Amino acid sequence: MNKIHPTSIVSPEAKIGNNVEIGPFSIINDDVEIGDNTIIGPQVNIYDGARIGKRVKIFQGASVSNKPQDLKFADEKTYLHIGEDTVIREFATLHRGTVVTGHTTIGKNCLLMAYTHVAHDCTLGNNIILANSVQLGGHVEIDDWAILGGGCAMHQFVKIGAHVIASGGTMANADIPPYIMVTGVPARFVGLNNIGLKRRGFTSEDISSIKDAYHLFYNSGLNMTAAREKIAEKYSGYPLVNKIIQFMNDSTRTIIRK
User: Fold this and answer.
1) Cβ(124)–Cβ(161) below 8 Å
2) Is CB count within 10 Å lower at the N or C end of the chain?
3) Residue 57: which H helix or E strand, with range?
4) What is the value of pTM for the model shown?
């Protein structure tokens, strides 16, 4: 049985799962799908194109799947996907995609704290934390287990690797490779995310190889291309280091510096 407050407005065309709660004064538009056991708080607006997984929690005042803030947007049919067990806190603004990709995607078991903004065409992996007031420009990509501290701002098209941690107020206009800590305006490399890697089961050998790879990249005096080639040659059999090399090869906004 669903628990829908009588003051909420829920389109009869919306597809609502089982055991869903919808709080007072919330509005659910026509082209919306909400998974089982999801909780929608008061005064939440869920617009067309929302595809919300099971056991998602959306708190007061959040705006989900609204139109992109993109002047080229022509009201085309696009989507916002939210994975299972994700939590969206108060007054977050999550915009659906544009015709470029067709969707914005937020993965499973993520936590988006109050006042976060996820712009059009962003792709977020699983187990990501965005602290209060994190702002993501359009087309930002964030891999699994990344954590962005309060007030971080990420330029459009920036890529952020897995297991990255950014201190509060960090602003990035270049790509941030996996496993590292960053801080500053603009973002700068300050070391490995050692505590996070250990908590997630990385071995001492894993961490040592990653540390050495970044030492070659940031401290060897080699240029970016030569450093990548040296790392690839030395660690060709190490999947975790290969992920760093692949990330750097795929970078479109260059890599942050030390």
Assistant:
1) no
2) N
3) strand 57-58
4) 0.96
pLDDT tens for the 258 residues of the chain, in order:
799 999 999 999 999 999 999 999 999 999 999 999 999 999 999 999 999 999 999 999 999 999 999 999 999 999 999 999 999 999 999 999 999 999 999 999 999 999 999 999 999 999 999 999 999 999 999 999 999 999 999 999 999 999 999 999 999 999 999 999 999 999 999 999 999 999 999 999 999 999 999 999 999 988 889 999 999 999 988 999 999 999 999 999 999 998
| Per-residue tokens: 240 | 């975790």
**Cα–Cα distance, 172 to 242 (Å, whole number):** 23
- Say whether domain 198-250 belongs to CATH 3.40.630.30: no
CA distance 245 to 77: 36
Enzyme catalytic residues = 120-121, 138
β 3-4/21-22 pair status: parallel
> Sheet holding 111-112: strands in order across?
3-4, 21-22, 39-40, 57-58, 87-88, 111-112, 129-130, 147-148, 165-166, 180-183, 188-192
Q: Which CATH class is domain 3-139?
A: mainly beta
Measure the CA–CA gap between 79 and 66, rounded to whole angstroms: 9
**DSSP assignments along 114-161, one per residue:** TT-EE-TT-EE-SS-EE-TT-EE-TT-EE-TT-EE-TT-EE-TT-EE-
